[in-house]
Amino acid sequence: MSLQWPDISFQDRMATAEFRVHERAHIVVNSDSCNGCTTRACVVACPANLFIPTSDGGIVFNYEQCFECGTCYMVCNEEGAISWTYPEGGHGIVFHHT
Amino acid sequence: MPDFDVIVVGAGPAGSCAALTIARTGKSVALIERGPFPGSKNMYGGVVYPRILDALIPEWWNEMPVQRWVTRRSTMLLTDTQSLSIDFRSDAWGDAPYNGATAFRPDFDNWLANKAVEAGATLVCSTTVTGLITNANGAVIGIHTDRPDGDLTASVVIACDGVNSFLAKEHGMYPHTDAAHFTLGVKETITLSKDIIDERFAVRGNQGVDIEILGGTSGVNGGGFIYTNLDSLSVGVVLKLPKLAAQSKRPEEIIAGLKSHSAIAPLVEGGTVSEYSAHLIPEAGLKMMPTLLDDGLLVAGDAAAMCLAAGIWLEGVNFAMASGMYAAQAACEAIEKGNTSAKGLSLYKKLLEDTFVLRDHRKLRRAPQLVLSDRVQHMYPALITSVVQGMFHVNNPLPKPGLRKILKDERRRLGIRTIDLAKDAITGFRSFG
Question: pLDDT tens digits, residue range B391-432?
Fold first, then answer.
């Protein structure tokens, strides 16, 4: 790679997308499964970086800035560790120039 | 009596074309959308090929919300330090009846849904469908929604609920879901002035460019793209899920890597990221397609994996629109004949088999796997670019080497076996020939 791209911060990047957040979390993570997980695929793959590993081997997550893509439950190899549904109608990600 | 003749779930291109087709026959149709407006949940990797709309909306080009008409189509190979483009331009694509256009999906999908509404469809937004209602025989007779008292019944339900299709999965239409059949698409919309875009991409007026890229994805199998909107660019990558999950670079870092390539940076620099977005793509074609119909149920669009990811052809919106339209025709015929069982709905399968929707997928059934294979992704771009470099590099006082010798030397240097090259060439020829 010949040029270094001055990239925007992740926070600024996420601030470009509109999220109409509902009070109910549409992602639920079963932390018992995460504690034994070594692959942590959701951590690297989630485009919104919603899954953060903790020092005690668990995963903290937030659902508010979710693109509703489905990557997390698709890459997760722990059956049932990530329960994922669509948020309530009218809520969640709202795209504009996509 | 059911509440509606047909309920269509999802107001994307499949759902709206279905609802439009049904409404025109005078039947009652509800079009249910979970977003606050049609298109609000949708993003893609760039070009709508609307030819199929000729059958539904005469001279659609006079009203469709277009960013630019694609008159330049490039396919680019990237290695870390090289690029090779095949760049095609056609003036004909810049005039009616046109070929492809860049468009923002929230604009395009909203426009198409409103065509269905104008024809008499009932559009219900901000409503998530949470499940199917079935009768004692297992036939689909309606939907549950997240509205209070939100159950609705219909003679036929058409599931156009997108790549994650919880309805098709709930009803057992997908025997298994394999993460390897999906890619993650991530994209930046980058604001730049129209003048700068026109200059950098050598286009004028409402002419536009679509560049599809092999390589430049930080070693993760997939691809990249750049295309022009009127006063912004869309730049992104698609990444095969298991490969993305098995390494340590995050999606936005992979886009940053693409944008920093010496062939890409001059196109995008100075722009401001105005929207970041992500979506899954059903990438495996025929191999991953679910059962397409059951008693009272049809599946269309991304929900039925009708997305063509065949390298030189990357299409989806056209497959969605056509499958939605054909599903609607089958639903209408079944209702008129009074038989909405799977057998009564079988016209859907026939219409798909008779047209590009399944014929393209059948012919190109081996292409998605080939295109995302390790050799095509990691070895052939390097082979091709180094052969071209060997061809154009002047190494005087040595005389020019023959092309065959360059190819042989580079193949050996990269450790590509002749047998594999031949096998892939045959697969490629059977798919694209």
Answer: 999 999 999 999 999 999 999 999 999 999 999 999 999 999
Evaluate whether residue B186 is within a structural domain: yes
B222 interface with A at CB cutoff 8 Å: no
Chain A residues in contact with B249 by the CB 8 A cut-off are 44
Domain that holds residue B393: 373-432
pLDDT for A55: 86
State which amino acid sits at residue B74: S
Kindly state whether residues B250 and B398 are assigned to the same domain: no
* Residue indicated by tokens 């504690």: A35
Q: In 3-state terms, what secondary structure has residue B262?
A: coil
What is the mean predicted confidence (pLDDT) over B225-254? 97
Helix axes B317-337, B13-24, angle to 10 degrees: 30
Is the peptide bond between B397 and the residue preceding it cis, with omega within 30 degrees of 0?
Answer: yes
| CB contacts, 8 Å: A69 with chain B | 184, 278-280
Q: Specify whether the CB–CB gap between B281 and B238 falls below 8 A.
A: yes
Dist. CA B410–CA B418, nearest whole Å: 12
Residue A32 pLDDT: 85
Torsion of CA B293, B297, B298, B302, to 10 degrees: -110
CATH assignment at residue A56: 3.30.70.20
Pairing of strands B122-124, B29-32: parallel
